[in-house]
Structure prediction request, 416 residues.
Amino acid sequence: MTSNAKWLQRLQAVECRDSSYNAKSDPLVFARAQGSTVWDAEGRPYIDLCAGFGVVALGHNNELQKRVFASSINHEALVTHGMGDVYPSIAKVEMLETLKAALPQHLSKGGLALSGGQAVEFAVKTAQIATGAKGFINFHGSYHGLDLGILPLTSRRDFKDPFRGWLPEDRVTELPFACDLSEVRKAIHAQKAAGFGCAAVIIEPIQGRAGIRPHGLDWLSGLAEICQKEKVLLIYDEVFTGLGRTGQITFAEMVPCDLLCLGKALGGGLPLSACFGRAEVMDAWPQNEGEGIHTGTFFGHPLSCRLGAETLRTIQEKKLPERSLILGEKLQGMLREKLQSHPLFADVRGRGLMVGLELREPLAGARLMDVLRRHGVIALASGDKGQGISMTPALTIAEEELVVAVQRIADALSEI
Ligand SMILES: Cc1ncc(COP(=O)(O)O)c(C=O)c1O
Prediction:
């Protein structure tokens, strides 16, 4: 049997140094997975509290995936690839219809892409076209992807400094997390006064990568009100929070937005993302008369669309958003009960099955993540200083699995 370490060695011989984590201890290479269990290359099982960055909402290798993949072998229509912006596939039509039906009525038109970053780029371009303005407002700690075009909107300097100057960053105003709303109004006015205008405010209703930091619903309502008054679009980046993980398909069910970005879980495990918006905003795009001005070869890939539409229907039919809220409360309760007496414990927070544990020291989360592998749990270090871990398991994870995982987190924390 080839060990995890040996696989990593082989990988490092062929892969860009930046592309995989060079874990110094207890390296982990995924070999197979089922539900919320992953087995490494040496056959060791782990409880997966990440679900592939929240992608496999129904669990790894779930029955739906197996059914869709198996039927693709004998179903000649399933992988009939359309021609992106020229000739659509039936699968794309059905995916967009299914998504529209799942979203609040005001978000009625959209388009598909492959990654979360591309969904954000779609929204950013839409906002520029719809408003004619070029400025954007984001928030400290935000993560909207690493594609060059949208890089200035991502907060972390280490992600963007090597590429400075590609886009004029002075057209992005970064405000403090959950700042006083008067600062938003001031920033909008400043961008208008500078002449390039303010196209949109972009926000993750719950910041994911920054360590699961929720914005309160009242604060979001206040933000939406300002955007409406100032005629600036409000973009929700729900690439992570969307599609049931945080208790609803989108926060726009509670506080409406103008544009919505979805990704990760959208393709049921395959690459698929979407930008949806108000019809009047999306209709700012010119009519495609044979060639779109925003397209990609694999946008709306038919297999992703089939699996995505079925996954979305299953999330709704099985009432997984509601389950996620209940189970998330329990998870937070268990974490607090088991961990709060530990000197490193700082906070547990989140909504639904998007839960963050914050510790008191920089890099403590990164250390915990490493020790957790030895205890058979996969969780991700998070926060701008690696001070916490984030948990975004499959929406189908069993409560008993969470009970075991919490005990292992407690055990691991006592070792760091
Ligand atoms: C909120 C948010 N937006 C955008 C992205 C970028 O998505 P992708 O990595 O698929 O480009 C992520 C990825 O983690 C995300 O969490």
The first strand starts at residue 30 and ends at 34.
